[in-house]
What does this fold into?
Amino acid sequence: MNGALSKSYLTVATVWRRAFLDALIAPRRFRTMMPEFRRTSDMLFHPGIASLDSGQIPAPEEAVQMLSIGSGYGGMPAQDLYALLRVVRWLKPKRIFEIGTFQGLTTAHMALNCDAEIFTLDMPRDLATHVNGYSREDLKLLQPREDIGRKYRAVNNNSRVHQLFGDSRTFDYGPYQGSMDLVLVDACHLFDYVMSDSRNAFKLLRENGAILWHDFGNSTDVNRACKLLAKQEPIFHLEGTWLALHVRGVSLVEGLGIEKNGQ
It folds into this structure.
């Protein structure tokens, strides 16, 4: 067990010892705090998925450009956006596929930080006919067509961003398969959706490229899906973020120093 993994294991063990002590002394408080303990455990300890220091992502030749994130924004936290953009600057992708547009702020950031053609998919409210299992929070994220992607429109003067509409489980990815340098999975976080989106992400990817999942360490279903996928494909958690990363291609793997560090 390496030092970083050992430290994470000890931290998680300490958290759970305190949790079970609470269960004995103050069971009502334990029931209230249990989801947060579970989230902390998932964030720190994830067997089968190694941690990757964001500093291992090769430094960009040009500074990452960040836009202002207003209050009430429901997308990526700033530290996740920055890590994502480090990957974008490193890859210099020509084509990106984003599964989950929402307001389009992540889309806008990617457009500002590369010259890629970006395809971004989201399900508008009028197409959301099968929402069994959706939480109240998930339902709130379903928007009218005119609101989807509104944040990227100001930076889409050259029409590099293409808005696609549909249910990500049934969308026809055929015209896009095998042509993407980067795929971002950040749509519905229900397990079946994450697994379906992930399988499609692997099909979309070229021989050399990367997949990023958002809300790893923050969503139980995203964690579960990534841990299952990691049994077949190498997936890494970007430390300090809610992002998981897969890279395909020898040159990219070597660029991260993964083989060198034995991760």
The mean pLDDT is 85. The first strand starts at residue 50 and ends at 52.
